[in-house]
DNA sequence: TTTCTTACA
DNA sequence: TGTAAGTA
């Protein structure tokens, strides 16, 4: 299938599909015209990519993860031992980000708590 | 008409 | 990420 159908079937914008390819996540065939020709396997790959992006992984990490993952009726499972370690590392990174955001929110709360009543009454 | 690449905001 | 230009 070509770009338009792939975008429709996968629910991913054409722009994003080209971006995934640019990042090495996808490599559809090329027609003599230069047009991309996507396979059903590519469609599955895109579904996995979306799943992994939702899991908060970067495209760089996903590029490494994709060849090392199995798909049990829609549920992704790692098939390489080293991948498990890498995913744990990603999880730790997320935890640090969450902690950083908690700190930011706490500081913001402090600022908001300092707002005078007259200002609060006129605020949205 | 559709898709391509490249480039800029 | 969205969009526009200029092609094949």
TrEMBL record:
The keyword Lipoprotein does not apply. Pfam families: MerR_1. SUPFAM superfamilies: Putative DNA-binding domain. Residues 1-68 form the HTH merR-type domain. Keywords: DNA-binding. The keyword DNA-binding applies. This is MerR family transcriptional regulator. It comes from Streptomyces albiaxialis.
